Amino acid sequence: MATLFYSEMLSRQTKSLLEEYFNVRLMDEALQCVEELKSPSHHPELVKEAISLGLEKNPPFVEPVVRLLKYLVSKKVLTPKDIESGCLLYGSILDDIGIDLPKAPNNFGEILGSLVMANASDFGMVEEILMKMEDDRFKKAVLDAVMKSVSESLLAAQAAKVEACRSLV
Fold it and tell me: Which of 56, 82, 134, 167 could lock onto 78 through a cystine, CB 3.0 to 4.6 A?
């Protein structure tokens, strides 16, 4: 019971801090709020919520989501593993979300590509996400957006994983 209450409280606080960030875009304030949560085990959920809330906005907040996640990784509050786990959480529900938000797969791919470019993740994560997705159109939209978001040199450096991703669409 206490664990459920704590989890719900963390979820509410996470959504609240993200909405505040999206309204004022103050990175240091968002950083402080995440640190005050004192719950590293909740960080993947924070990543998922940041992506989810950001992409529900009209227009979608692709760049603010990327800036926040990159900033939190640079400050060592989030780890690449948190990013990967949170993106996998979002990717696993994208088949449902994409029906209501048709641009979500493309926007999610842009976020993934930016995180890969920032070395906050890699094509191994993209491959895992694509494997969890069922809708082939959404897979293609995600991968196309990732590919457009990364440099040729990065594509060459991770060529084997890029090909593994291509084989899934």
Answer: 82
In whole numbers, what is the pLDDT of the chain averaged over residues? 94
Sign of the torsion angle spanned by Cα atoms 85, 45, 113, 81:
negative
Calculate the alpha carbon distances from 34 to 47, 79, 100, 154, 155 in Å: 11, 13, 29, 31, 33
Q: Would you tell me the crossing angle of helices 123-132 and 159-166 to the nearest 10 degrees? A: 10
| C-alpha to C-alpha distance for 137 and 116, rounded to whole angstroms | 22
pLDDT of residue 19: 96
Task: Summarize pLDDT for 40-90 with one digit per residue, the tens.
Answer: 999 999 999 999 999 999 999 999 999 999 999 999 999 999 999 999 999
Topology (CATH level 3) of domain 43-166: 1.25.40
Domain segments of the chain as ranges: 43-166
Output the CA–CA distances (angstroms, integers) from residue 127 to 5, 27, 75, 122, 145, in the order listed. Answer: 35, 30, 26, 9, 14
Give the amino acid at 123. Answer: F
Number of Cα atoms under 13 Å in the Cβ half of residue 169:
19
